[in-house]
């Protein structure tokens, strides 16, 4: 029997990478190497118990990535901007005058460059799948230049294209859409109960169609479909293409609660955020409204139904049904 090919998965303990691991475990035809900084975490130990070869490496350390990527046939690279931004150990690292969000994005880009450099040195590599996001500065024609956690990911992809044409020729780009889980865990967009109504509010236009994804369920099937397709595809990854008004209508039907989506004026809500992050998020929502989450002017972007084999994913309705909404279900 031919030996199995090896896929190396960064972020194996996280949403995207965890879903990639799960899909390839179920497919059964691959050896899976899962990368973590902490092989003794509960999640890493669980992966090991299920047959994943758990290896220790850090995106900040190129040598550790060289070892983790050795002899790989496929590599999935993902970085974690919010983990870098939110780590208290990083709070004092920006130089004077530099905002923490800019420093975090520069650090994230360097991590991606480290991983791309390491992937370029793997002779057995057949496919790299890079988790990225659009360059908002470029696609807004320099109107929205503060969406660093998008732009610097895109700059890393541009680096791969320019520095390693051979590697780029075997690369696919995976651009995850808007995480549905933001409505459960992100205080910036979580719904609030106002009298008897559950209000979802942001300055993203209510009728703008967005790529909605459950990254912990959908990333794996979409990454596998990308990997089985020809290289060079740039996928906007989602389970449903839907506006937030439509999503909230489904929420109301599923939960039986009165619910409403409110489009706030640009710059709202005026939350007490660090100045740099406020500017980043204001630009982020305005960019979505004008250019589309996926950069609708980017001619290289494809949608899941343009993949050779579009996987069957769950619906937004199913995702809403499966969640615990008790934090907004009860009156205060
Ligand atoms: N929120 C959204 O709507 C949205 C939409 C699109 C894209 N994104 C992007 O998604 C990314 C986060 O992805 P996710 O949700 O899949 O991640 P996640 O669930 O937050 O997990 C982060 C993963 O990254 C690993 N990791 C973090 N720092 C590392 C390092 N220095 N070296 C090696 N591994 C490291 C962690 O592994 P260990 O802790 O085990 O080492 C963990 O597996 C962010 O960059 C964000 O910008 C978010």
Record keyword descriptors for this entry.
binds NADP nicotinamide-adenine-dinucleotide phosphate; 332 residues; 8-stranded parallel β-sheet; 3-stranded mixed β-sheet; Rossmann fold
What is the name of the CATH superfamily?
NAD(P)-binding Rossmann-like Domain
Identify low-pLDDT runs. none
The Rg value, from CA coordinates, equals 20 Å
Small-molecule components bound = NADP nicotinamide-adenine-dinucleotide phosphate
Assigned CATH architecture: 3-Layer(aba) Sandwich
CATH fold-level assignment: Rossmann fold
Order of helices and strands: EHEHEHEHHEHHHEEHEEEHEEHEHEHH
Widest β-sheet, arrangement of strands: 3-2-1-4-5-6-11-14
Alpha carbon gap, first and last residue = 62 Å
What is the share of helical residues?
Answer: 40-55%
Q: Sketch the major β-sheet.
A: 8 strands, parallel
Q: Helix- and strand-based class? A: alpha/beta
Please give the count of helices: 14
Strand content: 15-25%
User: What's the number of domains?
Assistant: 1
* CATH level 1 name: Alpha Beta
Shape: globular
How many E-type strands? 14
Average predicted local confidence, pLDDT? 97
Walk me through what this model shows.
The protein has 332 residues and is an alpha/beta fold. It has one domain: NAD(P)-binding Rossmann-like Domain (Rossmann fold). It contains 14 helices and 14 strands. It has helices at 15-27, 42-49, 62-69, 81-86, 100-119, 136-139, 148-163, 165-168, 182-185, 215-228, 244-255, 275-291, 316-322, 326-329; strands at 5-9, 30-36, 53-56, 74-77, 127-131, 171-176, 178-179, 192-194, 197-202, 209-213, 234-237, 240-243, 258-263, 301-302. An eight-stranded parallel beta sheet has the order 3-2-1-4-5-6-11-14, sandwiched between helices. A three-stranded mixed beta sheet has the order 7-10-12. α3 (62-69) packs across α5 and α5 packs parallel to α7 (148-163). The longest helix is centred in the N-terminal third of the chain and has 20 residues, at 100-119. The radius of gyration is 20 Å and the shape is globular. It starts with a strand and ends with a helix. The relative contact order is 0.13.
